[in-house]
Amino acid sequence: MKRIIGLAAAAGLALLATSQAQAEVKEIKAAQQYGLSSLPLMIMEDGKLVEKHAKALGLPELTVAWVKLGNPGAITEGLVSGGLDFGSGGVPSLLTLWSRTQGTTMEVKGVGAIVNMPMELLTTNPKVKSIKDFTEQDRIAVTTVRVSNQALLLQMAAAKEFGAENYAKLDPLTVSLPHPEATSTLLSGSGVISAHFSALPFQHQQKRDQRVQKILSSYDVLGGPATNTAAYATKRFREANPKAYQAFVAGLQEAIELINKDKRAAAATYQRMTGTKESVDDIYAMISAPEVQMTFTPHQTMKMANFMAQTGRLKTAPKDWKDLFFDDVHALPGS
């Protein structure tokens, strides 16, 4: 009798474990943006790394639906509405979401960093040598006005140049354009925009044109290497789908490791997946530059957080960078 009861109990536990696994989502909806800052996510997609780790965790049917979005605003709304499970974007977008969702059922935190990568403010206007030379005739493309990485960096640069109270001085000159469209528009000479706060590989493409001049870099503004793109998710998804979440984190970490181990192979994957005209050699050179680091460790997030708090952009400001991220990265030397 005891043996029968023991077998029944074991069977019940097995059934419970199976039902718990089955209760998790069968599809993760994740967003990427354009450019080399999404390379680890593209490696995850191409190699089905999330699916690989999910299978090892007991979720053999889990798949990932990747969507490409050109601006952080769409990703923000997707996460808040539940249309996305994982987003990716600049630290300002993560900070805005974190502050906006604190104490709600859709609380958002960072999963981890994706890449340190400089962004450059470029112009075709020969009269512009620094941001103080911009006039009302100029238009500066950023991915999303006021909330994107580039928009915030422009405000930080303006605060340094014109005084803290004038941080928004250049905001009226900004327009929202995804990097691919901004690149083609700037190089067309149409005059629709005269500057673009760009990112790799687009800034590399633009600087081939002799009319294009660099005004400043994000590293100039922040004082060194900083997180360009981070991954983030809701606390609700993480708690409801712990194995699926763990599979995504493991997939991202593996993708970063794969890139750092073989950057030429990663460059070839990027070229194949995007159809870019950039050669594998050019892409390899970009991601091999010392200022570009594929890393899961967040950097310089509190500088952005403090600026956004000082300018009233955050209802609630994190006291430490760890407040902004789930504990998957707390043991790392972040900032």
Concise structural overview:
The protein has 335 residues and is of the alpha/beta class. The protein has 15 helices and 11 strands.
Give an overview in words:
The structure is a single chain. The protein is α/β, with parallel strands linked by helices and 335 residues long. Helices cover 46% and strands 16% of the residues. It contains 15 helices and eleven strands. The strands form three sheets. A five-stranded mixed β-sheet has the order 7-6-8-5-9, with helices on both faces. It is globular. The protein has two domains: 219 residues, Periplasmic binding protein-like II (D-Maltodextrin-Binding Protein, domain 2, 3-Layer(aba) Sandwich); 103 residues, D-Maltodextrin-Binding Protein, domain 2 (3-Layer(aba) Sandwich), CATH 3.40.190. β6, α6 and β7 form a beta-alpha-beta unit.
List keywords for this structure.
alpha/beta, D-Maltodextrin-Binding Protein, domain 2, 2 domains, disordered N terminus
